[in-house]
Amino acid sequence: MCYAASFDALPPSPLRVLLIDNFDSYTQNLYHALAQSGCEVLVVKNNQFASWDALCSALPPFAAVVISPGPGSPANAADFGVCSEAYDAGLPLFGVCLGHQGLALSVGATVGLASEPMHGRLSDVTHAGCELFAGLPRSFRAVRYHSLVVEAASVPSCLEVTAWTASGEVMALRHRSLPQYGVQFHPESICTEYGEALVANFARLAARSAARRAPMASPRLTPPLSPASLSPDSLSPSRAGTPDASDAPPVPRRLGAPPPAARRLLVSEVGGGRFLDSAAVFEALFGALPVAYWLDSSCCSSSGDTPTGEPARARYSYMGAFGGPHSSLLRCGAGGGISLVGRDGADESLSGGSLLQAMRERLVPWEGAESELPPFRGGWVGFFSYEAWRRALWLFSDRYLAFDHAARRVVAVCLCDPGREGKEQSAQQWLWETAAALQQRGLSESDAAGGGATARLPPGGAAAACQPLHGGAAAGFESARSRDEYTANIERIFELLREGESYEVCLTTQFRAPPPRAAPPPSPLALHLALRRVNPAPVCCSSPERFLRIGADGSVESKPIKGSRRDARADDASRADGRARRRQCRDPAHFAEGAFAHTRARLDRAENLMIVDLVRNDLGRICRVGSVRVPKLMAIETYASVHQLVSTVTGDLEDGTDALDAAACAFPPGSMTGAPKTRTLQIIHELERGVPRGVYSGSLGFFSIDGASDLNVVIRTAVVSAEGVSLGAGGAIVTQSSPEDEWEEVLVKARPVIRAVECWLRPGDEAC
To answer: % helix / strand / coil in the chain, to the nearest 5?
Structure first.
């Protein structure tokens, strides 16, 4: 929860502030706090200019400077760049974390290792009542992300220590003769009390100082990063070693002319009044086709609720295939080349273009009965790999089925072009044939042998699905790294965290199994059917985590997950008195409440907080100032095999931006990287030896023609190829992590997917 304090009104003329970004993942949160305080904000990277003089020559005049947090040390020029010269300019200055340490270093104080790293942790901060803290209680709670501190004994007489912790660590400084301030904690964090008020206090102090100086011109607000200047490659882990992508070509807003306005959507309810079984429908209509998709909300029951009785987290399922008159396949291969495959099979190379450019060209509204349609109204369905646009596959879906699990309704949707001879007749024919095929097969939930949208667990249910693996894997799976190698990586991360190189690193490993030996091999569809029974989740690929949901109205939602606990029902169900226990286990809340109530709770909350602040930052790059909110922080959600801490971050897109811009700004998902994102991507690349994660850790979902989008984070996923079956699992590493516990968490996360593979390979096994 954020707090506010009242203070004198700011002057009517906006204060122009230079915000120097030290490649941190929280800088945009500072940007929003400053902008909400009435400031006009110019944002530059710390390496964007060779010197302070060059910076001042290139930018319009500014009245104050804010130096952001960031990884590394202010003593390292590569980490601090032009910031080291800012303190000599004599302007009002506010340093946060790394910027605070830089202020101390600039006048001869010593910056050294803290007694312990404080990443995502809260402390009581007491201040001396200086003007920066005007209107704030003498003590308040603040979030800390740092491994280095200013040594109190080294602070020279020109600086005053104005805030501290109970143990005496320096939390704030003030220059005695210049309007320069620093705070070690993060006022921009969602959990820092009075953080926005503190930033506004600095803006007021800087404005008073500026009023005594020569008046300045007032250009319009410069956004921190224009979406039009974004390059998808600049967000890719493979480019993580390149700190600045300002020379990347802009992404064009749109290519070519939009489709004629006469094109429209045709919608027809199918099923003859019965709610159809989605698994049976997909198998009957699309299962044998070479290119098909199924965005499967398997955690929904027929009533729209989850198997645990909670409200549905994903109401709709969608399925379709390649082959409609407007259908096309957009592919981005390992080498970065982009090709477009048309309905006729022609493969066209899109040289000189970008993936986002090609996708945006098709995303224009079509006329139709929009009020009767689910959020997906035709458009792109597919995935981005973790390596961003270097590997992706997207299908433009113009004919598909949509299942509304709450309304128990199924509709067929078709994009048609009635202005062209025979096109509307062809579309109506497809709708009629689809309805007839479903009516003939009688694929209602009550008739289907496969069980239907209500995911049924095998004998042992969640208990069997989430039993941990001990020392290895099953079904022929082998981890790409042994327990010893993985824990050694964690020890290396501890060193980097202590040195201030990162706050949190999301480390992963891959489990691989050889291809099935059966002839013919079992289909990937059968694997998904097994996975949806063993580990039902809101979206396809068994992932419960939402990366981004964008509404047609520009609203944005992200639901990062950090903190997982094995369902305690697994333990109780295996005991001798399991019968009575199993009755109790049917109430997930009985176990969810205690799942995080032990010594690891602080670790889980630190992990979640760091990612929430990171997601706020990512959405802040593309959302209107003041619109980014956290309506739900660290709520416990229960799934078939785990309890998880889930937060919700929302915002509203800036005018002129769209869902593709939002995906570019936030990719790769912060819950799969850690923070600060740029430096942490470099660390991950080193520790994982440059081995691509592929689809795992990427994102899967849809971009609708009306501007809506829903994308997950690809976890809990088995990938089938000619080389075999693979899946990834991992976790966030912070200073409080236990290497053994982290390895155990990897196995807990992998187990439901491995169990599904076992069922896939043994379709006749009663245990499946």
So the answer is: 30, 25, 45
Domain 15-220 maps to which CATH number in 3.40.50.280, 3.30.70.100, 3.30.420.40, 3.40.50.880? 3.40.50.880
Q: How many helices (H) and strands (E) does the chain have?
A: 19, 31
Beta bridge partners of 127: 163
Per the listing, tokens 């993936």 go with 355
Active-site residue identified among 188, 196, 637, 745: 188
pLDDT surpasses 90 at 141 = yes
pLDDT per position as a tens digit, 478-501: 999 999 999 999 999 999 999 999
Indicate the domain borders of the chain. 15-220, 264-441, 477-761
Average pLDDT of the chain, as a whole number: 81
477-761: which CATH architecture? 4-Layer Sandwich (3.60)
* Residues 300 and 314: beta-carbon distance below 8 Å: yes
Whether 768 is catalytic: no
CATH code for the structural domain at 264-441: 3.60.120.10
300 is an active site residue: no
Q: What is the pLDDT of residues 235-258, one digit of tens each?
A: 333 323 323 333 332 333 333 334
Residues 6+ apart with CB under 8 A from 686: none
- Other CB atoms within a 10 A radius of the CB of residue 291 amount to 14
User: 188 catalytic, yes or no?
Assistant: yes
Marked catalytic residue, from 32, 127, 146, 186:
186
Amino acid identity, residue 111? V
- CA 380, chain centre distance (Å): 20
Tokens of 460: 């042992």
Q: What is the pTM of this model?
A: 0.85
Do 15-220 and 264-441 fold alike per CATH?
A: no
Nearest to 677 by CA among 18, 19, 22: 22
pLDDT band at 443 (very low <50, low <70, confident <90, very high): low
In a 3-state reduction of DSSP, which class is residue 215? coil
